């Protein structure tokens, strides 16, 4: 009975939530960039995995007054170069790259950003987890919360607790009420995905805290799949309460 009620809840959430396809600004076989709002873009690159095949991995770009902050690198250095080069053609300077957790779909192209002199930011726990691996390390760490500037606007980086990983953060652009949820937030209809480093007991609690702290969020870009409204938070909470 409990499982049947959960399945019904998921169906109702799927029907009530709004998901959207991005308006494409740039597309190749390796990289897609779509406009989400006037000042935000979703970038999507691809990761070959043994368990899930070719996986589309999202990041977000916040743009203001000719400056950009990028959330999560494309999956490798070559595609990161492609992303930065495209921004150059738009006369947009990347001021910072933010890694939302320590997996390859967030930091796989970090070296390219560093080679371009672009500073990187991450949770201190992300830096600690990467230190034991053969990986490029983010340069600037924070504990729980920090703000960056892009043009005349602020961007929030916030660690609210464990979920997909123990270090996962979200990004929030207050002026447009848009959130980059990364792999902590699921797209509508998605399964639980990669749980290798997950804390499934804390996951719904963490997302509930995010929902309470950012109640006016209008758009959420997840780490995989289509972006949508605040219903993505409800969907993720329900999925991991099972």
TrEMBL record:
GO biological process, one term: response to antibiotic
Cofactor annotation: Zn(2+)
Catalytically driven reaction(s): a beta-lactam + H2O = a substituted beta-amino acid
Entry EC no(s): 3.5.2.6
Pfam families found in the cross-reference section: Lactamase_B
This protein's record includes keyword Zinc: yes
Cellular localisation: Periplasm
Gene Ontology molecular function terms on file: beta-lactamase activity; zinc ion binding
Listed InterPro entries: Beta-lactamase_class-B_CS, BlaB//VIM/IMP-1, Metallo-B-lactamas, NDM-1-like, RibonucZ/Hydroxyglut_hydro
Chain ranges of the Metallo-beta-lactamase domain: 56-224
NCBIfam families assigned: bla_subclass_B1
Binding partners and assembly: Monomer.
PANTHER family, sorted: ACYL-COENZYME A THIOESTERASE MBLAC2, METALLO-BETA-LACTAMASE DOMAIN-CONTAINING
Full protein name: beta-lactamase
Originating species: Allomuricauda ruestringensis (strain DSM 13258 / CIP 107369 / LMG 19739 / B1) (Muricauda ruestringensis)
